[in-house]
Amino acid sequence: MSLENPLQPLLEDVERTTGKEPFSTAVILGSGFSNLVDHFEILAEFPYARYSCFPLGTVAGHNCTLYAARCHGERILLFSGRFHLYQGLTSFEAAAPVRIAAGLGCRRLVLTCAVGGLRNDLDPGDLLWIADHINLQGDTPLRGMGDAGFLDLSRLYANHLFPEALKLAAKHDFELKKGVLAAVPGPNYETPAEVRMLRTLGADVVSMSTVPEAIQAGFYGMELVGLALVANPGAGLTNSLLDHSSVMATVRSAVAVSGCFLPDFLAYGSTESVAPSS
Predict the structure, then answer these.
(1) What 3-state class would DSSP assign to 53?
(2) How far apart are CA 206 and CA 189, in angstroms?
(3) Is the pTM of the predicted complex or chain greater than 0.70?
């Protein structure tokens, strides 16, 4: 059976509703990022629950809807709701939105996520450009794909776009940080010993998501950008206990302040105007 077959009902509905013109960019909105859809012209909505190609289950901070939208004249997809291994899913299942985006013609993927900060100069509310990742989830969406799974990830992230993103962030009056994301399975937060280990390994932030979609994007040859919003310090770096509702409140507040950055970045980085990775 083709991997694309389960996607057909959704792909056909999107084309029937919005036309057959391909979409240029897909954005996966992480926990607390759902209000970003208000910054785009929405063309149509497709609830995940109507389509079997989306895994079952929801997580607080995700409203589980695919939006077809327009941004500065380009057709884009907004996945408001992502999937995690801690829901009992495989990495392949968690990366389903990327396969859908590829099926609808997207050549670029922007991943957003909430993360714990591990570096001393990272504070809650900071936005960080993901330059690379460390996969500690014990799985990959390419598992079981045979020779196709031997994928070079050394140029996975589109870091040639960072200088322009840095300038754009300055215009929006905030500093865009840059660093390495470590992905762990979750759903529990890390122990202080694990935080020390992650810092020793070279991680600057830690997430329970993002990496499955990033690897899947690499498989499809998409230009990949990752943006991580620091929601809390890593466990043990302060005297406060971590709480999911407080984490989400921090993310929503920060997104409300920096919400215009992403649409403006997408305008700069239209797929016709950027140079490919060298």
Answers:
(1) coil
(2) 10
(3) yes
